[in-house]
Amino acid sequence: MKVRIGIDVGGTFTDAVAIDNDTYEIIGTVKTPTTHTAEAGVAAGIVQVLHGVMEQHNIKPEDVVFIAHGTTQATNALLEGDVAQVGIVTLGSGLQGAKSKSDTNVGDIELAAGKFLRTKNAFVDTSSDVEAGIKSAIEQLFSDGLTSYVAAEAFSVDDPTNENAVIAECSDRELPATATNDISKLYGLAIRTRTAVVNASIMPKMLEAANMTDKSIREAGIESPLMVMRCDGGVMTVDEVRHRPILTFLSGPAAGVAGALMYEKLTDGLFFEVGGTSTDISCVKDGKVMVKYAEVGGHKTYLSSLD
């Protein structure tokens, strides 16, 4: 028998579900409290439920043909303000550079009452020595205590050269960084920057969790690549999570409503999922989930998610 396994990491519990790959019938489930304080972080709980569901139902590693991981970590991190401070490296020159300074000055984004995602900007004049300017900007932001970085330039969706140079410099310094052109190919520097800032703010936490989770799956002897749930209802590789963890934001609600569509055959209505940290509500019309751009702190982003 070939098996699919789904693992969900919530703020309170971590669950594993095994289903028959051919019939989609549920074989079994296992639940354990999410291991926030363990040395291995939430990966410890993932190992527990994975081994639990496999041992209880005699599932061999080679039987697993698909394994997917849904998580509310990004959502909970933003709700709780457990995010990194972000330094924004703005690039430009002349009048466009002046406008870019304004567009990329996102300020401190209020995530919840008294919880803020704090940002600070540094400007690089691209009409002079760009390489030296980038080094200086990163050093300035680093000395100010910023731990994650965003590269932002108008029209970088057409020419990402300068933004990519910032990312390369951050990579050399082993600093997590996001280029706005890598987050979205849409114009609109202000929204693109805001989306990149949210991505950068959760990178440190999500990188650690993704690496530990992937390692745990490999150590369990499962060769099927670990896939991670996206906020639009699809899945992506762990490597994609390392670059764009924002795509896991609201992936918990996406997984829940996907299950409602598949197993309850919901065609029209509201789907509620009550968790330990948040309550998620999704709208289904004509058998389809509404899709919109997600908002963070009341501000629009270029992140398409199930509504």
Automatic annotation (TrEMBL):
Transmembrane segments: none annotated. One of its GO terms (biological process) is glutathione metabolic process. Residues 4-166 form the Hydantoinase/oxoprolinase N-terminal domain. One of its GO terms (molecular function) is 5-oxoprolinase (ATP-hydrolyzing) activity. This is Hydantoinase/oxoprolinase family protein. One of its GO terms (cellular component) is cytosol. Pfam families: Hydant_A_N, Hydantoinase_A. SUPFAM superfamilies: Actin-like ATPase domain. InterPro entries: ATPase_NBD (IPR043129), Hydant_A_N (IPR008040), Hydantoinase_A (IPR002821), Oxoprolinase-like (IPR045079). It comes from the Bacteria. It comes from Lancefieldella parvula. Residues 192-307 form the Hydantoinase A/oxoprolinase domain.
